[in-house]
Amino acid sequence: MSRPIAVGVDGSDGSLAAVDWAADEAALRAAPLRLVYATQWIPHQPQAVRMTHEERAEEAGDVLGAMEERARARRPQLTLAAEEVEDAPARVLLDAGSEADILVVGTHGLSGIGGFMVGSVGQEVVADAKQPVVLVRPDYREDAHGEHGRNKVVLGLDIDDAADEVLEFAFDYAARRGVPLHVLHSWHAPFLHRHRVAADTDSGPRAEMASALAQAVRPYRDKYPAVDVAEESAIGRPADRLVEEAADARLVVLGRRRGHGSHIGSTTHALIHHAACPVTVVPHG
């Protein structure tokens, strides 16, 4: 059996959207869906609002039951598992992700006990996960036929670090859904200086970067001949260009090199906060 798609739930609008995305992905892959709810005792929480162990367990059961019902209504064929884990949310999600093909989380969770994507917790999950992490905004809406006007996948590719894991994820996702893939590489002034090329000539950075981009993508064009691929090499800040392309995309895919500690990079940070569609961060290296 395929490894599961794991999704963190907490009852927030973000986790509702994450469950929808995860259920669709699990159904498409014929993979199990695992719903995970994290609870943790907060020692410095005021006594007046502190929940007992029994109250927290009851709340977890209510949330997991509602999320399981939602997933089954959306994709009745799914094999489902749902569990409460009493530990810090980041550790719970990272552990669940280590046993899954994909970890899915909502980008806005509840503060306190159930919150997944609040401040440093979300960054820790993205920075430390061993598997791809999909970040889903609360306003995500997509039916079984795809969201209106959102029928492309955008891959933000660093041609100096064009990892196979990142390319494979983007091409595979586009192929499974039969949608076009837009591969975007953009650069700004420091990149031009590093490569010592003139910015105003056709034989300069545009031609050089376009050639490098085509070379990086070619093996996956050959592997996925049915995917309609557009390549773009453009001057500009990568985060700005990717946020712009995300406006009519159904998914943005980014890479993250392992071993950089808790730093997720300015481009990933910008996309998590500003992309109008789900964002996948694929670890590699």
From TrEMBL:
Bilayer-crossing regions: none
Record-annotated UspA domain positions: 1-137, 151-283
Matches recorded under Pfam families: Usp
Family: Belongs to the universal stress protein A family.
PANTHER family: STRESS RESPONSE PROTEIN NHAX, UNIVERSAL STRESS PROTEIN UP12
Protein name: UspA domain-containing protein
Protein species of origin: Streptomyces spongiicola
